[in-house]
Every structure is written in structure tokens, then in C-alpha cells.
Amino acid sequence: MSQTEAVQKLEALKVQNGDEKPINAFEAEEESGDEEEGGAAGGDAAGAKKKKKKKKPKKKKGGASGGAQTSPPRIPLDQLYPSRNFPVGEECDYRDENLKRKTDEEKRHLDRMNNDFLNEYRKGAEIHRQVRKWAKQTIKPGMTLTEIAEGIEDSVRALTGHDGLTEGDTLLGGMGFPTGLSLNNCAAHYTPNAGNKVVLNYEDVMKVDFGVHVNGRIVDSAFTVTFDPVYDPLLEAVKDATNTGIREAGIDVRMSDIGAAIQEVMESYEVEIGGQTYPVKPIRNLNGHNINQFQIHGGKSVPIVKGSDQTKMEEGETFAIETFGSTGKGYVHNDTEVSHYAKIVDAPNVALRLSSAKNLLKVINKNFGTLPFCRRYLDRLGQDKYLLGLNNLVQSGIVDAYPPLVDIKGSYTAQYEHTILLRPTVKEVVSRGDDY
């Protein structure tokens, strides 16, 4: 029996013996879509609908699943979907003059030609849904940020089938970027470094932002975790703003128009905390962005406030639509300790004098390429005493450092994000789930 077969058999026995608690894989978008479009039903009708779903749940788009996922998630997605047809995201018609794209035979043909590209994104999206479902059930006050981050990352690696410990394995699939766990006034780019002892508290507002990639196709999606219902209006404002950005996005749409729509929605909310009312402000110097293969920030920005950017979205592009709301100034600045890094796509060929920088660059090229990484990932690969070399790569313009981004002290920030594909025929919100 091979090592892989032995591991698979052990996983099956664990589920059978109750050592690992099974959780259901993501249910098809058809179900959640029906509820959203139909609105709230009457008590009897809603009850009947729920009973019907319990008795006979709808099949997933993309074919039958091979079984339930475990808790924590450890069964590779390819085993749950042996046909390799993964669930399709939420498909949305384009607006107005673009409506004809759905019936245009040439566009339909182009859509069919993209099947491999789409399936890689859909696989990453289903992994994201399954992992975040487990994370939402698991994350509780009293947990350390390191415990939360490693739980998410170990699950993503298991489901992609790439543990990232052998050279080049991370480039095939796994984490699209480090798990962001930004607390309260910190809006983005914070993940614990080695030795971090920060504990999640009941009063905290935590942004959970992680990416899954399959062959460099990065699914970027984020949500906000709170335990105190006082923050509910803040979360609702940001979720509504993100969905507005998704609705407005499309082929030939101007970035400025999307930003104006997002800002109008978010600023219509306010939140009362500690007896004081705060308007919810969009963080004006944070944006959504397009995504290229192995490149999380592709060069185009999607603003969340009105502006003059006349750049248009184009057919075939992939975008992360993300919005940030704040009870502070609505403007972030760099904080201190850096955890996120990424090799620059068009990095110059610089003669490095430090041997530690040369050696570290080889490790980065072979294990991450241009995918973002963090210090914990270098630790995991057995690297040590690398900070001098890493700083030298940053100073040489080969690697970018991404410090935590924070609003004023005492403020609270929230984030929601989805990845959308501008297919020739329809817009696909590939990371959409029944949770957000």
C-alpha cells in the first residue's frame, strides 16, 4: 500500500469511528440564490421550504460530491469531486447593452474555451468555502491569532493536496497569500509572526482575509468576525457596500462609477458603540484590484470612494471586489512590524552582496515565485536568521514589504471581499457562498 493510499484509508477510518467530525461540503449556490432573490417568505411557506431542503437537498453545481468534509478539513477536494467538475459560482447577467452577450454564439464559444481556467478558479473557491465554513464554526475568544492562522493554512494545504514542504510544491497550489487576521483599527496586512502571543477577545473586530490558489489562479475573499452584536451595523454596511461593488462591476464599466456607488451605500450606515454614534466611512486609500496569474495585485485598482479614474474593466479580467468601512478617519497608514512580503513581478536583476540575501532569493523563487508569503512560511521551510537578507532584498527593490495598515487608535474597521470573473457571457462571483 502506498503512503497516499494509507493516509486516505486512515482518514476514512477516522470519519467512520467518529475521531473527526464530518461537516457538509458547500451547498449549491442555487439554494442561497433562491432565498436572496425570492426574499422572506411567510412562516408556513418558509418552514415548508426548510423541511423540503432537509429531506432532499439540491445537488451541487459541478457534479456529485464524493462525501462529507472533516473537521478540521483534511480530505483533498479532488477526492470529494472525482469528476473534477467543481461548483460554479454565482452567475450574474451583465447590464443593459451587455445583456446580449449571454446569447451571442461567439461569446458562448469563448466561454467554453476557458473551461480549464475556470475550473482552477472554481476549485480554489470551493476550498475557500469549506475552510472558511470550518473557521467560522471554530474561531472563538481565547484563541491565539497564530492558532487561527495555522488552522486555516493547514486546511487549505490539505484540501489543495499541496503541503508546500517540498521544493516547488507551493507553486502548484495552496495559500494564495498569508492569512490576514487584522484586529480592530488594523484594516489589513497583519498576520502573526513567530512568537506572537496575541489572543482574540470578545470585544474584537477581526478581518479574516485569506487566498487559495490553484496553478496561480488566486481566489481572494474575506469576511469579518465579531462576537458582540454592537458591531452588526458596521458589518452590514461593509457587506452591503461589497455587494454593491459586485453588482456595479462589469465589462466596460468605469472604476470611478463603481467607487461612487460603493461610497454612497456605505455612508448611509451608522453604528452606536459605547453610547456614541459613528458614521461608517469607506477607507478611501484602500481599494479592490484585478488579479493576474501568480500576481495578487494586477495593476488596476477598484476604488471604494468616488473619483476621476476613467479606467474600465475588460472582458476576461478577474477582480477582487473588497470594501473596508471604519468608525475612525477612513484613512489608513503603515504600522510597525511587517509580516507580509512578495517578490516584485518585474524585479530588477541586482547584484546582491549579502550571501544571506542571495540564498533567500533562491528559496523565494523556488517556493513562492511572485506569490505573497510571510515570515512563518520561511520558518516552516526551515529558514532561520533570514531577516538581514530579507531586508536587503526589500532595499534592493526585489521584494516588496507590506506593513499592517491601521486607522486611528480606538476605531473599528471591517472588510468583506469576493473574487469575480468577467467571463464573455456572464459575470461569475466565483467565491460566493451561502454565508456571504
TrEMBL record:
Q: What does this protein do?
A: Cotranslationally removes the N-terminal methionine from nascent proteins. The N-terminal methionine is often cleaved when the second residue in the primary sequence is small and uncharged (Met-Ala-, Cys, Gly, Pro, Ser, Thr, or Val).
Spell out the protein name for this chain.
Methionine aminopeptidase 2
- Binding residues for a divalent metal cation 1: 209, 220, 417
EC number from the UniProt entry: 3.4.11.18
Q: Which cofactor does it need?
A: Fe(2+); Mn(2+); Co(2+); Zn(2+)
InterPro entries, alphabetically?
Answer: Creatinase/aminopeptidase-like (IPR036005), Met_Aminopeptidase_Type2 (IPR050247), Pept_M24 (IPR000994), Pept_M24_MAP (IPR001714), Pept_M24A_MAP2 (IPR002468), Pept_M24A_MAP2_BS (IPR018349), WH-like_DNA-bd_sf (IPR036388), WH_DNA-bd_sf (IPR036390)
Q: Which residues does the annotation say bind substrate?
A: 189, 297
Its subcellular locations are: Cytoplasm
One GO cellular component assignment for this chain's record is: cytoplasm
Q: Where is the composition biased (Acidic residues)?
A: 27-38
> Single Gene Ontology BP term?
proteolysis
**Family under the similarity heading:** Belongs to the peptidase M24A family. Methionine aminopeptidase eukaryotic type 2 subfamily.
Which key words tag this protein in UniProt? Aminopeptidase, Cytoplasm, Hydrolase, Metal-binding, Protease
Under the heading PANTHER family, the entry gives: METHIONINE AMINOPEPTIDASE 2
Q: Which residues lie in Basic residues bias regions?
A: 48-62
Q: Which GO terms describe its molecular function?
A: initiator methionyl aminopeptidase activity; metal ion binding; metalloaminopeptidase activity
Task: Classify the main location.
Answer: cytoplasm
Tell me the cofactor note: Binds 2 divalent metal cations per subunit. Has a high-affinity and a low affinity metal-binding site. The true nature of the physiological cofactor is under debate. The enzyme is active with cobalt, zinc, manganese or divalent iron ions. Most likely, methionine aminopeptidases function as mononuclear Fe(2+)-metalloproteases under physiological conditions, and the catalytically relevant metal-binding site has been assigned to the histidine-containing high-affinity site.
Peptidase M24 domain: from which residue to which, for each copy? 120-330
- What's the source species for this entry? Sphaerosporella brunnea
Entry binding sites for a divalent metal cation 2: 220, 289, 322, 417
Reactions catalysed, semicolon-separated, are:
Release of N-terminal amino acids, preferentially methionine, from peptides and arylamides
Q: Gene3D superfamilies annotated for this entry?
A: Creatinase/methionine aminopeptidase superfamily, Winged helix-like DNA-binding domain superfamily/Winged helix DNA-binding domain
Q: Where is this region: Disordered?
A: 1-92
